[in-house]
Every structure is written in C-alpha cells, then in structure tokens.
C-alpha cells in the first residue's frame, strides 16, 4: 500500500491543485504509474510516494496521514 501526495494541473478549473490518498500497488513504479494514469501524465507537476503497511487500523491510518502530511508540507 502506498500513500501519495500529488501536485497537478486541473484542466477543468485551470488551476494547480494538491491531493493525497492511498492506493494498492506491489512496487513504487506501479504505484507511480497508477497515480499518473489517474491524474493524467501531462498534468502531474510533482508526486510523492511513501510505502505503508498492507493492513492498517482506522487509528493507524489517521496517524499515518497526519505524519505524512507533516513530512511533506
């Protein structure tokens, strides 16, 4: 499982946006490919990926998001 944070160009609203989330992938390369495909390779400004454990409780998940946001921002 990977946490991602992406800066991308939103072509609908014509502005730069930032989003974060999690996705399942077996490698960093596959995670990056899935995120860039979802947001559009030409729209990606920057992408941050961090590997997380496969199973997270709700409390662990919230803690991980808080820690990741502090590290990246």
| The CATH topology | Ubiquitin-like (UB roll)
Using the alpha-carbon principal axes, give the shape: globular
Measured between the Cα atoms of the first and last residue, the distance is 21 Å
Beta-sheet strand percentage?
Answer: 35-45%
- Strand order, biggest sheet? 2-1-3
Number of helices: 2
Radius of gyration: 13 Å
Can you tell me the number of structural domains? 1
Structural class: alpha+beta
Instruction: Indicate the low-confidence ranges by residue numbers.
Output: none
CATH architecture: Roll
Q: Report on the biggest sheet.
A: 3 strands, antiparallel
Describe the model.
With 73 residues, this protein is an alpha+beta fold. It has a single domain, classed as Roll (Ubiquitin-like (UB roll)), CATH 3.10.20. Helix content is 37%, strand content 36%. It is built from two helices and three strands. The protein has a three-stranded antiparallel beta sheet, with helices on both faces. Strand 1 and strand 2 form a beta hairpin. It starts with a strand and ends with a helix.
Short summary of the structure?
With 73 residues, the protein is of the alpha+beta class. The protein is built from two helices and three strands.
SSE order and pairing:
Blueprint lengths: L1 E9 L4 E9 L4 H12 L4 E8 L6 H15 L1
